[in-house]
Design goal:
By secondary structure, this protein is an alpha/beta fold. Helices cover 37% and strands 15% of the residues. Strands 1-9-8-7-6-4-5-3-2 form a nine-stranded mixed sheet, with helices on both faces.
């Protein structure tokens, strides 16, 4: 499905140029990249009615995020029923950041907007980052977060995975690990600009979109792989290449990508391979958009609409799960 752009081309070009100028990866350390992302997130106008609660379990760290729809606040049934002690459904969100950056704080605005769109509480995972922690630390933390939710009484089908960029890859890796281990699977997963293959980096769009994508490149993604592998460099685990794995038996996937990003081919191939394996997969490609454009929902109409679509997907998946 192609989703048309509504923002004037001149404005998008200005945003793209700014993103390219601020792209933190070339030549910067992990600490500099983290600082740049934190600063960028701090400049976003905050939503009203957002509630945040830190999670420290001894197994993983994270953050509960709940939000109120501004258009419904004050009405009967307006505030979201997101008291986690009575909550029965949840989004488990795994952030991006190239395995070296990103945090609950950086993704708080996106989590809040997902909460509004889905009318659910969102649990964002604060997984361990490279270079301090290498493979498989991040994946272990994501699996621990899911298992913890099950221990808290959440039914597997009432949990929806979400993730962007490497976070989407981690979500896929977790799904495949759960399936292979015969463990209960979540009700679905939405993947924003997923890395379908962090090992081979052979998608056609790495070349065709090389001069259009202000946020990513083959060289950047090669560094992502090296940063996360550490001592495993040279023997990349198959887990980091979901496109080379069996995608059957997974819950329905909802994938969004921008038509300007180098990861476009990964999203397209992932949707096609999942469908071939019998796993339902819906793909939205947004015109004139780049990787994880949803982070700019504070002022980008396309991002707002994309998040609305995610909310509709989540609500539909949970409705179907409830009928089973």
């Amino acid at each position: 499905m192609i989703c048309p752009s509504v923002t004037p081309v001149e404005q998008l070009q200005a945003i793209s140029s700014q993103l390219k100028h601020n792209n933190p990866y070339p030549g910067q350390t992990a600490y500099e990249i983290r600082a740049a992302l934190e600063e960028s997130a701090g400049q976003l106008p905050a939503l009203n009615g957002v509630q945040v609660e830190q999670v420290q379990t001894g197994r993983f760290s994270g953050e509960w995020v709940r939000a109120v729809d501004p258009g419904e606040a004050g009405k009967c049934g307006g505030p979201l029923r997101n008291d986690r002690h009575g909550e029965t459904k949840v989004i488990l969100y795994i952030h991006g950041g190239g395995f070296v950056a990103g945090s609950c704080a950086v993704y708080r605005d996106l989590a809040a907007r997902l909460s509004v769109a889905s009318r659910l509480v969102v649990l964002t995972v604060e997984y361990r980052l490279a270079p301090e922690f290498h493979y498989p630390a991040a994946g272990e933390d994501c699996l621990s977060a899911y298992e913890w939710l099950l221990d808290q009484g959440f039914k597997s089908g009432h949990i929806i995975f979400g993730g962007d960029s490497v976070g989407a890859t981690l979500a896929l890796m977790t799904l495949i690990s759960l399936r292979d281990g015969g463990k209960p699977l979540p009700g679905g997963a939405f993947l924003l600009s997923p890395h379908g293959d962090l090992v081979h980096l052979d998608g056609e769009s790495y070349t065709s979109r090389a001069h259009r994508d202000p946020t990513g490149s083959r060289e950047t993604n090669q560094r992502i792989l090296e940063d996360y592998l550490g001592e495993y460099a040279g023997e990349a685990p198959a887990q980091l290449s979901p496109l080379r794995q069996d995608l059957s038996g997974l819950p329905p996937l909802f994938i969004q990508a921008g038509d300007q990003e180098v990861l476009l081919s990964d999203a397209e191939r992932l949707a096609a391979k999942a469908a071939e394996a019998g796993t339902a997969a819906q793909l939205e490609v947004w015109e004139n958009m780049w990787s994880v454009f949803q982070l700019m929902a504070a002022f980008l109409p396309e991002a707002q609409q994309a998040i609305y679509h995610i909310g509709e997907y989540v609500k539909e998946r949970l409705k179907l799960e409830a009928e089973l």
